[in-house]
């Protein structure tokens, strides 16, 4: 090269797409919290301290009663740490028909009232399990009858209307392993049977992959029904063992089936890009099921996961 020859400019660094419609947060689940009170779980104050330290501005309430249920106190505790609430979570068994409505509503109204008081707009609805998480004992038939599907759809629509009318919240139904709303076939059946105006989906990327579903395909097919995201990955090798052994979800989690991104499936980059392409604002709340876990385990994982998501543009 002679002195008269210009130096070649270095190629620009490749930047991830800006996911400006995705609001990232985390949840008590990522700290090993499954129950309102359990000696194996970290105290709620530690969860709030560490989720803020890890760089997440949004959280979910988790199991009702884990965080303070007095709105004034919870607002003070979250606000002092720069945190905001994106959603509450409820558990339902609406496929059992109108007989369970009063019991369901008693639970839902408690959570919805606190969720509204915290300024959130979503209620995540998780269907009941058909087998016991610990013993693997069958609680119900894994397959619903046609009548139970009708009760499930009608009950969810009623829940969506009542929650919106009374509390101004939108319900988002969470497909979940070991429930009747799980993989591609049952999720599609549920969505086709319900009114999009009042019932939409919380797509949990890990649970949907755990049950054999293609997350990007679901977003592309039912994009207008995706109202909320949970970001999670599964370890495919451990999942193969879980499927082979017919293992319930709880023991599968203890075996480590839900793993730290980006080590598992589905790849989160295309999922986030597909969600961004929907053209609506979406919460994407990180959950890494790991109950129970050592108390010092969650924070380093949360930091690394937040750094990974920033690298994805979120």
From TrEMBL:
GO terms for molecular function: isomerase activity. Residues 48-310 form the Xylose isomerase-like TIM barrel domain. The keyword Metal-binding does not apply. Residues 1-21 are annotated as: Disordered. InterPro entries: IolE/XylAMocC-like, Xyl_isomerase-like_sf, Xyl_isomerase-like_TIM-brl. Keywords: Isomerase. Transmembrane segments: none annotated. This is Sugar phosphate isomerase/epimerase family protein. It comes from Streptomyces pathocidini. The lineage of its organism: Bacteria, Bacillati, Actinomycetota, Actinomycetes, Kitasatosporales.
């Amino acid at each position: 090269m002679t002195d008269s020859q210009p130096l070649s400019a270095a190629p620009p660094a490749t930047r991830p797409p800006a996911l400006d419609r995705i609001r990232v947060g985390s949840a008590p689940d990522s700290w090993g919290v499954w129950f309102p009170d359990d000696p194996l779980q970290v105290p709620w104050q530690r969860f709030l301290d560490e989720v803020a330290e890890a760089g997440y501005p949004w959280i979910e309430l988790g199991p009702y009663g884990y965080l303070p249920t007095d709105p004034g106190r919870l607002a003070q505790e979250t606000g002092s740490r720069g945190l905001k609430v994106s959603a509450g979570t409820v558990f339902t068994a609406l496929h059992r028909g109108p007989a369970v409505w009063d019991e369901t509503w008693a639970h839902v109204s408690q959570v919805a009232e606190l969720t509204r008081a915290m300024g959130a707009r979503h209620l995540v609805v998780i269907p009941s399990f058909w087998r016991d998480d610990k013993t693997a004992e069958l609680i119900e038939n894994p397959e619903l009858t046609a009548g139970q599907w009708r009760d499930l759809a009608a009950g969810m629509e009623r829940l969506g209307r009542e929650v919106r009318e009374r509390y101004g919240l939108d319900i988002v139904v969470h497909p979940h392993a070991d429930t009747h709303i799980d993989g591609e076939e049952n999720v599609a059946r549920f969505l086709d049977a319900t009114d999009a105006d009042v019932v939409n989906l919380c797509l949990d990327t890990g649970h949907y992959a755990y049950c054999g579903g293609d997350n990007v395909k679901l977003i592309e097919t039912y994009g207008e029904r995706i109202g909320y995201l949970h970001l999670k990955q599964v370890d495919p090798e451990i999942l193969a063992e879980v499927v082979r052994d017919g293992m319930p979800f709880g023991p599968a989690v203890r075996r480590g089936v839900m793993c730290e991104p980006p080590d598992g499936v589905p790849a989160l980059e295309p999922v986030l890009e597909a969600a961004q392409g929907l053209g609506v604002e979406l919460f994407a709340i990180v959950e890494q099921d790991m109950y129970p876990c050592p108390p010092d385990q969650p924070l380093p994982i949360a930091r690394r996961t937040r750094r990974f998501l920033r690298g994805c543009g979120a």
